[in-house]
Amino acid sequence: MTASTTETIGEGRRGKGEGGKPSSILLDTTAEDHHIARMAAVALGLTVLENAIPSPLPGVKPGLANIVTLIVLARYGWRAAAWVSLLRVVAGSLLFGNFLAPGFFLSLSGAVLSLLVLAFAQHLPKCWFGPVSHSIYAAFAHIAGQMVVVYLWLIPHAGIAYLIPIFAAAALVFGTANGLIAARFMDNDGKSNMERLP
Amino acid sequence: MSWHDPIGAALPHIKTGDWLTLLLGGICVVLLTLNLWNGGLADKAVIRSGGKIFREVPLSRDQQIEVPGPLGVSVIAIEKRRARIVSDPSPRQYCVRQGWLQQSGEIAICLPNQVSVELTGSVKKYDSLNY
Questions:
Q1: In this structure, which topology does domain B44-120 adopt according to CATH?
Q2: Are the Cβ atoms of B17 and A129 closer than 8 angstroms?
Q3: Is any Cβ of chain B less than 8 angstroms from the Cβ of A183?
Q4: What is the ipTM of this complex?
Q5: Does A155 sit within 8 Å of B126, measured CB to CB?
Q6: Can you give the residue ranges of every domain in chain A?
Q7: How far is CA A44 from CA A50, A92, A140, A143, B113, in A?
Q8: What is the pLDDT of residues A131-183, one digit of tens each?
Q9: May I ask the CATH class of domain A31-196?
Q10: How far apart are CA A68 and CA A178, in angstroms?
Q11: Gap between the Cα atoms of A11 and B118, Å rounded
Q12: What is the pTM of this model?
């Protein structure tokens, strides 16, 4: 699965070899790699879109990219969802120029904790729990992960506790909304065609 | 699909367990808000002058306290479990205009006269100045 990380760069890199002959390095990629890369690209697009939306409080974001993660989780399993989510975080940070900056680690900690919680949440009985539950649990995990990093690293002061209710309320609202959107999308392609989303 | 009725169309996607999750999340948010947003009842006022604690007085007894500072005397009043700075020789009067302090963690500072009054509860909470 190592090859899939290069998917964001391209299918293969071409360079000038010895004596001017063009040599090419081709990475073996599977159909699944391509699929993950495509999904990560969609998630990345949503991240860019979301950054254009002004936010009343830094940190309160709808997390639209998680819709993609939820769909991938439901259709292709946790491993693929983890790939898509983490690729989105890394590629997104490169895109916005905050790779290894505090914002990147906030995204990363949120994504990692969300994925951990989703690993458990996906085993909830399917007839009772749908993407909405997954989304809400993941959203709460996301803010929990971020708050831990904020507290341990950025603002080691108990005063940030004051902001937790705002973040929790946002997590509930946006988690529900994202879950519903994900459910709607899967509803659509379940009935009509399987390739509604790229 | 019916985009004209988003809420009605969305409802079938919320299963029984999802409602449960929503309820759980809602309770979580309410509990967090109640726990983290009540400043806590204050029961003591800590009066500082020149950085040192001048007096610690309980809020249960109404009284007026005169605190000397480099510019003159600041008068602090305690009344009905609240505290305020009644008068102060500072030029801009910020601490006087702050009015009554009621919740634990609230603080009024007269910087020029180096006098401050801070309310504390039984449990020392964070203050709103520090973040």
A1: mini-chromosome maintenance (MCM) complex, domain 2 (2.60.320)
A2: yes
A3: yes
A4: 0.75
A5: no
A6: 31-196
A7: 10, 6, 21, 20, 55
A8: 999 999 999 999 999 999 999 998 877 778 888 999 999 999 999 999 999 99
A9: mainly alpha
A10: 9
A11: 64
A12: 0.69
